[in-house]
Every structure is written in C-alpha cells, then in structure tokens.
Amino acid sequence: MKHSSVQETVEFIGTELSATLEDYLECVAMLAAGQRVVRVKDIAKSLGITMPSVSAAIVRLREKGLIDSEKYGYIELTPQGAALAERVCRKHSFLADFFHGVLRMDRKSANSEACRLEHHLSPEACRQIYRLVEFHRDQAQSETPWTGELREILDEKPLSELKEGDRAVIRRVAVEGALRKRLVEMGFRKGEKVRVVRYAPLRNPLELELKGYHISLRVEEARGIIVRQVGDEPEEE
Amino acid sequence: MKHSSVQETVEFIGTELSATLEDYLECVAMLAAGQRVVRVKDIAKSLGITMPSVSAAIVRLREKGLIDSEKYGYIELTPQGAALAERVCRKHSFLADFFHGVLRMDRKSANSEACRLEHHLSPEACRQIYRLVEFHRDQAQSETPWTGELREILDEKPLSELKEGDRAVIRRVAVEGALRKRLVEMGFRKGEKVRVVRYAPLRNPLELELKGYHISLRVEEARGIIVRQVGDEPEEE
DNA sequence: AAATAATGTTAGAGAAGCCTAAATTTATGT
DNA sequence: ACATAAATTTAGGCTTCTCTAACATTATTT
Ligand SMILES: [Mn+2]
Ligand SMILES: [Mn+2]
Ligand SMILES: [Mn+2]
Ligand SMILES: [Mn+2]
After folding, report:
1. Which residues face B206 on adjacent strands?
2. What are the pLDDT digits (tens) for A193-206?
3. How far, in Å, from the CA of A97 to the mean position of ligand 4?
4. Mean pLDDT for chain B?
5. Could you tell me the residue ranges of all domains in chain B?
6. Within window 61-90 on A, which residues have Cβ closer than 7 Å to strand C?
7. Is pLDDT of B191 > 80?
C-alpha cells in the first residue's frame, strides 16, 4: 500500500540501505527468530539505543517497505525486509567465521568486527572471503601443515595484551640488550608457562605467575615478551 | 594555540575520527606527497566533493588540531594529523594487499574495498590480517602447492561477470539437465578458451567467441559457465 | 474499574556531512 | 593598474541519526 501498481518485488534496485538501517533490520530478524514478537523496547535494548530513536528508524524502514507494523503494535519484517536482513546476516556470519576461524580472534571480537564490516563489503569481496573461509576450513580439517604454521603465527601476541586470568606459553623474548638479559634471567624463556594474576588499578604493573612464583612486570616490559595464549576458547562451535 | 597548557601531544586519547574525516586526512597526506602544496580544490577533486564541503571539513579538522591552514591559504597536516594519516594509509595499504594479493581482486577494486573498510577495522583485526598477508606472500614466494590451489578457487567466476573484451578459460559447466547438454554441445567444455566480444545494449544477450566462432548466450545461461579469467592483470607491482 | 506501571510516540534540538548560490579574496592577463 | 578569472568562504538548506522531555496508549495491579 503506497506503491500503486506493478513491480513491487521486481523493483528491487534502489535498495541501498545505510549501515544503521541494515543493523536495525538484522536486529529485528534475530529477535524475531528468538521470540514470538518483536517490540521497540527489544530493539532498543539489543542495540543500546533509546526507544524514540528506534521508533524513528522503524518509520524510515516502513517507508522503504521493509517493515510492517502499526502504532503501538508489534514489528515485523516484510518479505523484502526479511530478504535483506537475511543477506546481512549471511555476511555477518561468514565474516565472523573469517575473523574467528581463519584469523583466530575470539568469538566476541570476531562478531563485533563482522558487524561493523558487513555493511561496507562489496559482493565480490564477500564472495572471495567466503571462498577463502571454505578453503581454509577444508585444509584445516585435513590437517595440512600450513594451517598449523599459520595458526602459530596468528596466535602470537605480546604478554601485555592478555587479560586477568589468561594463561599463555612463551614463544620468544622480542627485545635485545640488558632488558632481554634481565627477562631471561627472571625465567621468561621459550616454552615456559605464564598466567596473568592481576593488573594494578592503572594497568601497570601487572602481576604474573611463572613457575609457581609471582612476578611483577611493567607493561612496557611485558610488551616485549611474545606468547601464545592457551586454554581459552573452548571451541564452542 | 587554543589549548592553554601542557600535554598537547600526550593527550592523544580522544582521537576518534569519523570515517569521513579519516578520508580527508588520508587524501591530504597523499596529495602532499605528490605536490608542493595542497589546496581545497585538489581535495575536492580527488574526493569528488564540492569545495564548500571540503572547506567545512577542513575547519572540523583544524578544530581537532590535525590540520594547519589559514584562510584562502595552503593546507598542511600538523604532526598529529600526519601521524593519523600515516596510520590510515598503512591500513589502506595492507588491506589493499589483502584484497589484491591474497583474494585476487583487481587492483582498483582492492583499493576501493580497502578504503571503505580501513575505518572500521579494530587494531587486532588489522594485525591478524597483516600477518595473514605476510604469511601468504612468503608461502606464495616459495610456491607451496596450497597457494596455487587457493588461487584456482579464487579466480573462478561465472562467465556472466566478465567485461567486454575479457578472455577466460572454462573450468566447468555448473548446471545440470538439458541446458548443460546444450552448452556442452555448443562447445563449452573444460579447458576451452572464450572471449567476450560484446554485450547487447541491455547486457543481454552477450556475444562470445569460442574456437573461432561467434556465439550468443543469454546472461542466465552464461551464469552457469564457470571460467577462470586470463590475460588480465599484468601484475604491475 | 480505577490507578499505576510499562511501553511507545511526538516534539524539539543538535552534530555530521553533504549540497547550491552568493559573496569575497587571490591570481592572472593585458 | 585594472579587469577578469579562479579559488575560497559564507550563508542557508537538507538528510540521517542520535538524544531528552513530555505526552499518549496499552498492560497490569489492586
Ligand atoms: Mn552491523
Ligand atoms: Mn551484523
Ligand atoms: Mn577510506
Ligand atoms: Mn584509504
């Protein structure tokens, strides 16, 4: 109701949504999948935005024929809206797979990364990333050596980036000179296990556990110790 | 001049630029590298934006202490501005490497892709992609088999996506039934070379050259023929 | 069946970013 | 030097997206 005549489904061309509106659509789709009905309140909560802003966004989406709702009522996607939401979700999902599965970021970061990028990727880039993810999964499954090598590289990070409670194995001490000598003498050697016990209030120094002893290190020093995080990520696929 | 006291360089915290402003900064840096002076006109032309809009953006950037310029005068980056621009450029550059070098997109698409995404990637994602690019380059250099396999996969595209004049080798016919039989009988077989002679005004049908003969195909039919583009991309690294 | 609470909409405002049209300033040519 | 051209800024307007405060509707209690 609004368009007068033919070609409502065919006229699918001028469908260029802003990143924001795509997120609203995606959000509605996800909520709809988990609940009977979707309300302004749910969207507001889920996106961390006030209800009036959501209300206004819903109006914009309704004008584009992507959402169907009546005043004070439930919110539903039109078929067109659902189709678009589905597209966004697919992008989100395989981008998250890329960041988590291939690039080894934790699920949460991978998701937020995906949700920021999903609106800016061209279809071609999507396709190529999708293929890369699939290829990588196949190769990882057949345990080709290169996927292991890559993982080793990707899992390296400076000790200073761990969070409280994280455990890691030391890979190398990436500083030279006196500091290196000091660190090595303290026991920071390849293969050794460390655990972050606690950050001081200002994140400096940080307290570590190494071979049963507790050691304090300044963040600048910890930055030079390259570790491989361990124990995390219970692979909740 | 504006901030009254200490810590102008140290206070580097609240430096969250919008995607737009990052692009302005990047643009100024690039122009500055290629010319003696940068003017509003140059930026406007380079970004495809009107001069008044650029003027306004310059004001916003000057307020943030990232650009130094006086009315009707040249535009320069402050040290802080240059530092930020440099960061954006680095992101752009290795993202472009990712899309071109790893994902096999053509340079132009890779660049525009990179320039859209560069503003939305977290530092962690940046680092991981950077590592992936490096790893891939090393592996491709030592000609490991998997990089070749991956390339084969990434280079596949439907015949319908080629542009006029493009040449390609057929990899497979990805349809079943009568249409498949017809296409195969016409000569669309694995290993055969094709060239796109011309698209009809409405992009349908498209005229192809196959084994010296000219053949017309509807786009829907061409979509089912998976090819590997060839001859393009003179590797202008 | 009120009264109260929860939810949703309206009104109004502000920041970013874009535009066109109209000054204003600087550069250039004779 | 002065007229003209080019570049820049100002002024004013528009869209998108956000917010708070106030009002309206719907749901829940009592
Ligand atoms: Mn998103
Ligand atoms: Mn998303
Ligand atoms: Mn950019
Ligand atoms: Mn860029």
Report:
1. B199, B217
2. 999 998 888 878 88
3. 25
4. 90
5. 4-139, 156-230
6. 69, 71-73
7. yes
